[in-house]
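hey m, so remember when u said the tokens were messed up on ur end? i reran from scratch. heres the input so u can diff it against urs
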Amino acid sequence: MKIILIGYMGSGKSTIGKALGLLVNIPFVDLDSYIEEKEKQTIHDIFKTKGEVYFRKQEHFYLKELLQADGPMVLSLGGGTPCFINNEKLLFNNTSYKTVYLNVSVKELADRLLIGKASRPLISHINSLEEMQEFVGKHLFERTVFYNKSEVVIDANKDQKTILEKLVMMLF
């Protein structure tokens, strides 16, 4: 089985994905890291040198590649992945994997993202908590329609142990 973790940036997809993979002995893949490895460039540099359109096309290509790969996998996606280039059709119309939305509040996301904003191209320019909450709120409003198509929705405002216990109960 493939387990696909979906949610806004900062929702814990990579952290929870790694921990879940270890817990249930399934390989973990972070789509952004996979893209960086394949493109031999950081996401930040891809955005900077080739633009978002190029990035989204490559993201779609590598997502298809991973979804078609044999074997089980815990896969964490980028926050925008479900929203671009018909990725929605790839993600939500297949019974060979389960999609999981890690739902985190705007306030919690803004708090988390303000700390690590330098490594995230879409928010590196934001300087205050109020600006971050506005930015996150707007994007989350636009993206939630995609995220909510996930088979499983988890309240990820909780601690990692609680989230993992709930995921294991719901998925296995």
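this time it looks ok to me. Residues 2-103+145-171 form a domain with the Rossmann fold fold (CATH 3.40.50.300). if urs says something different then somethings off w ur setup not the seq
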